[in-house]
Amino acid sequence: MRGRHRLASQTRALDAAEPDARISDALVSAGISIDDLVYESSRTLQWDGGHVAPISSFERIADGIPVVSFFTGCAGMDIGFEAVGFENRASFEISETFCNTLRLNRPGWRVFGPPMHSGDVSDFESVSTTLASLVDMPFEGVFIGGPPCQPFSIAANQRFSKTSPNFKRVGFNHERNGSLLFDFVDLIAEFRPAVFVIENVPGLRDIDGGRQLATVVDKLRKCSYSITTPTIYNASEYGVPQHRRRMIVIGSRVPGMFAFPQRREPVGAGSVLVDRLPEDATNHETRNHMVRSVRRYMKLSYGERDHLGRVDRLNPMRPSKTVIAGGTKGGGRSHLHPEIPRTLSVRECARLQTFPDDYRFTGSTARQFTQVGNAVPPVLAAVLAERITQAHF
Fold it and tell me: In DSSP terms, which residues pair with 277 in a beta bridge?
């Protein structure tokens, strides 16, 4: 059932349903599934350009250089470094759900986090004692870490005015997370890795007029590190089908000059978002919208926003807007599929983030969205890992 016939059948089913009914119930009598839904204007654009390089396509040039990650999350950075040939020596993560994801996908990694370990980077004694049994000092490998970004995030707080008590972009004054960057720096100073990577949202560079980050950089320089200028990179310029800006700082105590590669041609979201995923696709639970929401979504053009739901229909010819942490039970929102009037599933968001389809996320759907939305795209991390290897090893 295609084109006008599909739209007509869909419209009849929605017209016969109560506005507050769930879309799955409304479609049963018509024999239509959620992924059979179409917009009033569908499939007028189709991505026919290049495709995302699979994470498995990267050459393993690092040849076993050890890497330790902190604030690992669901391992977006780690997967990228792994693809280039780095060997995971240890991962520290405080969330038990995230640790479950790591252990499910990489049972051979040393994952330090609940329930056997706190995984808490702010507990210097525990983390340093654990790590000292696994690596030499100085450490001839790489430390990677992205301290929790909420205190520096604009996206997490854009719905509040700066004078509101709910406005949380307080940066380094945040009681817990604002100090985690300094905890990470203390571990770098203690173990002196050959190279370290600090990644975060762009707000980390600019909060407090840059003074606090300058303090961090100065401390690391006193530890004999050469440090790159804090730079913001957009993942869409390096083979990721999504606009995602991350701040990167790289330090090294070994010779070499790091430089990111030339920008690449953008890849449209339509390169990874298809009408139907395979039947065995994991993490592909889709939100059971109300009928009234779907009726609004159906009228949207490519790139247009539904202002009531604050969701955007993606344009398949352009990189996606940033994938954000959220879920089917609140805590955020995802974008609308370019050809199906519904929000994206976790698996579809993971594709925009360049996770391989066989990488599985544990926990509730909301927590799966959180993991994917907080991650560094593995392909961006792999590009970064390539350049670090070429420059410093």
Answer: none
Tens of pLDDT, residue by residue over 310-348, are 999 999 999 999 998 754 444 456 899 999 999 999 999
Of 281, 279, 311, nearest to 294 by C-alpha is 311
| Residue whose token pair is 């009228």 | 299
DSSP codes, 228-262: PPPEEEEGGGGT-SB--EEEEEEEESSS----PPP
Query: How confident is the model over 206-225, as pLDDT tens digits?
Result: 877 788 888 999 999 999 99
Q: Distance of CA 84 to CAs 60, 98, 224, 239, 330, Å?
A: 4, 23, 27, 16, 36
In angstroms, the CA 291 to CA 288 distance is 9
Number of neighbours of residue 283 by Cβ within 10 angstroms: 22
Q: 3-class SS at 88?
A: strand
Long-range Cβ contacts of 218-225 (<8 Å, 24+ apart): 219/185, 219/189, 220/185, 220/188, 220/189, 220/196, 220/251, 223/188, 223/189, 223/192, 223/253, 224/253, 225/188, 225/196, 225/251, 225/252, 225/253
**What is the torsion angle, in degrees rounded to the nearest 10, for the CA atoms of residue 348, residue 350, residue 356 and residue 357?**
-40
CB contact set of 249 (below 8 Å; sequence gap of 6+):
197, 198, 199, 217, 227, 228, 230, 231
202 neighbors 247 (Cβ within 8 angstroms): yes
249 - beta bridge partners?
Answer: 198
Question: Angle at Cα 121 formed by Cα 133 and Cα 330, nearest 5°?
Answer: 135
CATH architecture for the domain at 55-266+374-392: 3-Layer(aba) Sandwich (3.40)
**Measured between alpha carbons, how far is 347 from 77 in angstroms, rounded to an integer?**
18
Domain ranges of the chain: 55-266+374-392
pTM over 0.85: yes
